Automatic annotation (TrEMBL):
Example of a GO biological process term: proteasome-mediated ubiquitin-dependent protein catabolic process
Protein name in the entry: 26S proteasome non-ATPase regulatory subunit 6
Gene Ontology CC, one term: proteasome regulatory particle
Location of the PCI domain: 181-350
PROSITE patterns according to UniProt: PCI
Keywords, alphabetical: Proteasome
Organism the protein comes from: Chrysodeixis includens
Length: 382
C-alpha cells in the first residue's frame, strides 16, 4: 500500500484521543487541546458527546450550545428511514449515531443488527465492528472490545468474506495491544499492514506505529528487521513520518544501546498519553529494557558493570540496581559479582541455565500453590 492511497479516518475518531489526554493530570489544563476538542464537537454537532465530555472532564455545560446541536441531530436522524433490512440505510443511521457520540443509541442499534439472524454474516459483522469502535471511542473499554472480538470470530467462522477477515485482523491487533499480548499483536499487524483498510477505526499512521512498537518487543532482532523489510509501506512511513521509531528499531538491531534508550525515552512520552498503551506504558518500557539487556548479555560469560554502563550511556549505579531488580524477578539469568564488579551470565552453559530457570519456575509455582492451600485451609474445617 502506498501512503498516497491512504483512506480517510472520520474526524470525530480523533476526538477520543484528545479527550483522553485532557483526562490526564499533566494535560487537563492544556488550552489548545480544550479548544481542539470543543471545536471538533461543534463541527460535528456532537450533542451527546458534548454532554459526556462535560460530565467526564468537569467542563461548564452550555445549555444553549447543546440545544442547538441536539436540534441538528434530530433533524438529521429524521431523514433516515428504515426500509428493507438488507439496504444500507440502517448502516448510515448507525454511522451517524457514532459520529455524534450517541453511545446508547449507537449501541442499541448495532446490537439489534448483530442479533438479527435474517441479516447476512457480513452485515452482522459490520454491526460488531461498530460495537468495537463504540467501546474504543468511549474510554477504550477493553472488556467490551474483547467481547466484540469474540463475536466477530464466531461470525467469521460461519462464512465471513475476505474483507471482514482482513478488518478483523486490525481490530484484534489493537485489542491485543490493550491486553499486553504483543506477540499476537505483532503477527496480526504484519499480516494486515499491506492490505489495511480499516480507516473507520484508526488512520494508517497509527497502525504503523502500533505495528513497530509491537514488533520491537515481540520479535528477535533479525526477525524484526526481516519483518519490516517485507512491509514496503511500513518502511516508507518510518523513513518519512516516524524517524524516532525507525531509530528505535535500527539502534536495537545494530546494538547501539545508548541510542536505543534515548529512542525508548521518546517512545515513553508518546505511549503514556495513548489510550491503548497508557495502562501499560511502564510495563512496555521495562520489557524493552530487559530485551536490550538480554541481547547484550547473551554473548558473554561475564561483563563488567562499567562496560555495560558505558554501552547504555547511563551510570554504573543505575545499571547495577536495574540488573539486580530484573535478576531477582527472574527476568535476567545472571548474577552480579560485587567484588569483581561484573555481571556473570553463564553464557555457553545452556544446560545449567535451563536448570536454573526451571528451578526458579518451580519455586514460584510452589509458592503460589502454598498460598492457595493456606487460603483453602482458612475456610475449611478439617
Amino acid at each position: 500500500m502506498e501512503l498516497s492511497a491512504e483512506g480517510k479516518t472520520p474526524e470525530y475518531m480523533e476526538l477520543a484521543g484528545i479527550k483522553f489526554k485532557l483526562s490526564l493530570p499533566q494535560l487537563k489544563d492544556d488550552q489548545q487541546l480544550k479548544e481542539q476538542l470543543l471545536q471538533g464537537i461543534k463541527n460535528g454537532n456532537m450533542a451527546p458527546y458534548y454532554k459526556e465530555v462535560c460530565n467526564d472532564l468537569g467542563w461548564h455545560f452550555d445549555q444553549k450550545l447543546y440545544d442547538q446541536m441536539a436540534k441538528e441531530n434530530q433533524e438529521r436522524l429524521g431523514k433516515f428511514q428504515e426500509d428493507d433490512s438488507e439496504t444500507p440505510v440502517w448502516q448510515d443511521r448507525l454511522d451517524y449515531l457514532c459520529s455524534i457520540g450517541d453511545k446508547e443509541g449507537a449501541t442499541a442499534l448495532a446490537t439489534t443488527k448483530y442479533e438479527d439472524a435474517t441479516l447476512t454474516t457480513n452485515r452482522r459483522l459490520d454491526a460488531v465492528f461498530a460495537l468495537f469502535r463504540i467501546a474504543y471511542f468511549h474510554g477504550c473499554n477493553v472488556k467490551e472490545m474483547g467481547k466484540n472480538i469474540n463475536k466477530a470470530h464466531e461470525l467469521v467462522d460461519k462464512g465471513g468474506d475476505w474483507r471482514s477477515r482482513n478488518k478483523l485482523k486490525a481490530y484484534e491487533a489493537i485489542y491485543c495491544l490493550a491486553v499486553r499480548d504483543y506477540s499476537k499483536a505483532a503477527d496480526l499487524f504484519i499480516d494486515c499492514v499491506s492490505t489495511f483498510e480499516s480507516y473507520e477505526l484508526v488512520d494508517f499512521g497509527t497502525i504503523i506505529q502500533y505495528c513497530v512498537l509491537a514488533c520491537a518487543l515481540a520479535l528477535e532482532r533479525h526477525a524484526l528487521q526481516s519483518a519490516l523489510r517485507r512491509q514496503g509501506a511500513a518502511v516508507q512511513a518510518l523513513r518519512s513520518r516516524f524517524p524516532e521509531l525507525r531509530e528505535l528499531v535500527e539502534s536495537l538491531h545494530e546494538c547501539r544501546y545508548a541510542d536505543f534508550l534515548k529512542s525508548l525515552a521518546w517512545v515513553e512520552t508518546q505511549i503514556c498519553v495513548d489510550p491503548v498503551f497508557r495502562p501499560h506504558y511502564q510495563h512496555y518500557v521495562r520489557e524493552a529494557r530487559i530485551k536490550a539487556y538480554v541481547q547484550l548479555l547473551r554473548a558473554y560469560r561475564s561483563l563488567s558493570l562499567d562496560n555495560i554502563a558505558d554501552t547504555f550511556g547511563v551510570s554504573r549505579e543505575f545499571v547495577e540496581e536495574e540488573i539486580s531488580n530484573f535478576t531477582a524477578a527472574g527476568r535476567l539469568q545472571c548474577r552480579i559479582d560485587a567484588v569483581a564488579g561484573c555481571v556473570v551470565t553463564g553464557a555457553g552453559r545452556g544446560a545449567d541455565a535451563d536448570r536454573s530457570q526451571l528451578y526458579q519456575a518451580t519455586i514460584r509455582e510452589g509458592d503460589l500453590l502454598l498460598n492457595r492451600v493456606k487460603k483453602l485451609a482458612s475456610v475449611i474445617n478439617f
